[in-house]
Input
Amino acid sequence: MNLSKTKYTNANQCLKMLWLDTYMNEVKGEVDNDSILDNGNNVHEVARDLLGSHVTIEFNKNLEVMIDDTKKALEKDNIVICEASFLYKNNFCSVDILEKKGKDLYLYEVKGSTSMKDVFLHDMSFQYYVLTSLGYNIKKYYLVYLNNKYYRQGKLNLNKLFTKVDVTDKIIELQDHVISKLKEINNYMQEKKVPGDDIDLKCFKPYACPYWKYCTRNLPKPNVFDIYKLNKQKMIGYYKENIITFKDLEKVNLNSNQMMQIEYELNDKDDYINKDNIRKFLNTLTYPLYFLDFETFQLPIPKYDNTCAYQKIPFQYSLHYIEKGKLYHKEFLGSKKDPRRELAERLISDIPENVCVLAYNMGFEKGVIKNLAYLFPDLKEHLLNIYDNIKDLMIPFQKKDYYNKLMKGSYSIKYVLPALFPNEKELDYHNLELVHNGSEAMSYYDTLFDKPISEQEYIRKCLLEYCKLDTYAMVMIYEKLLEVTNNKIKIKKIK
Ligand code: SF4
Output
């Protein structure tokens, strides 16, 4: 088995992860990472121009080809090589950017992160080990990551977009660790059966392990890892004390919301509804009543002027509103250019000043509107008026004034909606075509304009349907709150 820098890093987190990756990859699960587009490659491609002209070693399944191409490129005294590839005793690595000046090498490891993380040093130290073992003289080793204080204006300024930190000394310090870890890996990988390594904090840090489902497959359900908002350290602590089932957890000191989750689950209790508090919340709302939801995308490399790495860019919204007992709908979906100006203009034309606006988990919608107000001073007054009039539909669920066991302790709309409407097909996101969640929405929007026109129309339709369901679901939740407080009004849908 060739060990790559990724495999080495995985082994540093957990040797069993590397073992499963190598011998039982089919049990690998998904890791939830829904907020950011997987654009790591884009970062690497952009960073390649950091040192000016360069050659790139093209990927080849046959690693020998990449290694030979690298050797040939290194025959030159002064050269910049991207993806220079090396093999030392089954340890393989490709260096993001390598600069050769005479006999000295300067290495650059590029990360799509906006901060320095210790875990980066592990794959860098592995690469340093490989190259120095082959006899190369590494003068300096730099970690290169994104600077989210840089706002694009016109052409990207790569020297401002990327932060460069000299970590040579830290990498040298880690060399003893690399040598002992490689020995440990070699021994561990001799195991013929699945090793018995137990779960621990390493399963979550530095990355959520994709084998979690497999490693916890024999635990009773629900268990300590299903307790909402219990910190990981406490979860692992209870697990090690063999306090695993909800029955076991009844005896420990958890917060009142967590105890409620356990109590409702164990006793199969009916819905808890605090009508007085829900009425108080509903009394703060006025008609016409608006329901707003944005979709945003985040890109590591800023695409538009006045944006920075990973800035949330709103590209779509859905807006339902109830006026005089009738339900109306409006929507916006951006076109190819920066969608923000058009979106802001449409938003202030769709939402009058001084009306009540509901969002679910309003911090997100408020953040988007505040950024738009800051960006467009001529629209600021109206945008901030909308901002000031937003109320949060999440409140009754967050305060546990309405709870049922299907919410599993959570007040996120992901749990609340199916808990309130378990058999409602029109509220089930699984029944939508193509776009079923926020990460799919941002990913389809990101590539939308590269597609043929006919395909674009279909994707746009699916994006609109998805976002529309978000605010329609809010209307239904609002109706449910009216219903349980004996305050039902008839809302007529207008096409
Ligand atoms: S879930 Fe935990 S124990 Fe299992 S492979 Fe992953 S890190 Fe290792």
Summary: The domain at 5-188 is CATH 3.90.320 (Lambda Exonuclease; Chain A). The CA atoms of residues 97 and 422 lie 53 Å apart. The pocket of iron/sulfur cluster is lined by residues 14, 16-17, 20, 197, 199, 202-203, 209, 211-212, 215 (CB under 6 Å).
